[in-house]
Amino acid sequence: xxxxxxxxxxxxxxxxxxxxxxxxxxxxxxxxxxxxxxxxxxxxxxxxxxxxxxxxxxxxxxxxxxxxxxxxxxxxxxxxxxxxxxxxxxxxxxxxxxxxxxxxxxxxxxxxxxxxxxxxxxxxxxxxxxxxxxxxxxxxxxxxxxxxxxxxxxx
Length: 155
Description:
Elements: E1 14-18, E2 21-25, E3 34-35, E4 63-66, H1 70-81, H2 85-92, H3 96-104, H4 111-121, E5 126-129, H5 131-138, H6 146-149
Antiparallel strand pairs: 1-2, 1-3, 4-5
């Protein structure tokens, strides 16, 4: 180890405080500061802990879809409340251009936006779609065969 003041190699360093700095110095340089006694750091033993992972609980939340007649409902509710598109856009925190497209039926609102519109206009825009309804829609007619679907080309 070397003295942190003069750079001389030392066997037994002496710890001093110089201003607010703690330095390891040689016997000759210890007069520069005030000698301090350094207490050894007490180390606590490491305790191993067993971590038990729990399976996350899966909550089955209903799937929401926006009603097909959303544009008409939004416009009707807004006009009955006597507010402009600009006022409604600021109330729900959306851009006016986005609201105009939604009200014109050119843009389907997101679920979050539909919830804001429902709360502000006091209307119902969201429908819940159950898992069984989704499966029923996806079922294919059993009488349909592969031959009904493909067209065979002959060379």
